[in-house]
């Protein structure tokens, strides 16, 4: 019978660090994927909300989209600090880009690294037609008791006398 004393210790000395490093890498990959999904959903939510509010000016729409993205990310990110939100509002399209980074602690094999996370979303800016805006304005006037913005009474057809 052969003597295998110390063989298990040698195997454990090689296998246990590999298992620990693999477990840590799986954990950090999960954190990265989670933060990436949160950033993508925040960019999509901001663009979706912006496409619904076409009546706002470009500046108001950009502020709204930044607010939506910020509130969507608030408390959801695991290891990402203050991602940058960039918003572009044009006549027919809107875009949101969110950029951040996750710093991975130093591992003996890989060293330290910074993983960048970037997500962007783009949508068409929905515009209402002139007739829909007119109908909504008439509905608003009728709900307010037949008064226009200037305080004039309106007739049955929506015209001031």
List the helices and strands and how they pair.
Elements lengths: L6 H46 L5 H16 L10 E6 L3 E15 L3 E14 L5 H14 L18
Antiparallel strand pairs: 1-2, 2-3
Physical arrangement of strands within the biggest beta sheet = 1-2-3
The SSE string, one letter per element, is: HHEEEH
- DSSP helix count? 3
Q: Mean pLDDT, rounded to whole units?
A: 81
Helix content: 40-55%
* Number of E-type strands: 3
Gross morphology is rod-shaped
Strand content: 15-25%
Return Rg in Å. 28 Å
Gap from first CA to last CA: 114 Å
Structural class given helices, strands, pairing? alpha+beta
Main pleated-sheet profile: 3 strands, antiparallel
Question: What number of domains?
Answer: 2
Low-confidence blocks of residues: 154-161
Structural notes for this entry:
This protein has helices at residues 7-52, 58-73, 130-143; strands spanning 84-89, 93-107, 111-124. It is α+β, with helices and mostly antiparallel strands and 161 residues long. The chain has two domains: 7-127, no CATH class; 128-161, no CATH class. It has a three-stranded antiparallel beta sheet with strand order 1-2-3. α1 runs antiparallel to α2. The model is unreliable at 154-161 (pLDDT under 50).
């Amino acid at each position: 019978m052969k003597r295998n004393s110390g063989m298990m210790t040698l195997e454990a000395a090689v296998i246990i660090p590999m298992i620990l490093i693999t477990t840590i890498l799986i954990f950090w990959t999960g954190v990265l994927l989670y933060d990436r999904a949160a950033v993508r959903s925040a960019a999509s939510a901001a663009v979706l909300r912006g496409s619904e509010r076409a009546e706002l000016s470009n500046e108001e729409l950009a502020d709204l989209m930044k607010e939506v993205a910020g509130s969507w990310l608030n408390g959801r990110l695991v290891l990402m600090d203050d991602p940058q939100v960039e918003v572009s509002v044009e006549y027919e399209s809107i875009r949101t880009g969110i950029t951040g980074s996750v710093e991975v602690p130093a591992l003996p094999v890989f060293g330290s690294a910074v993983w960048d996370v970037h997500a962007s979303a783009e949508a068409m800016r929905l515009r209402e037609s002139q007739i829909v805006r007119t109908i909504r304005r008439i509905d608003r006037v009728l709900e307010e008791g037949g008064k226009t913005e200037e305080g004039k009474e309106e007739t049955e057809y929506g015209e001031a006398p």
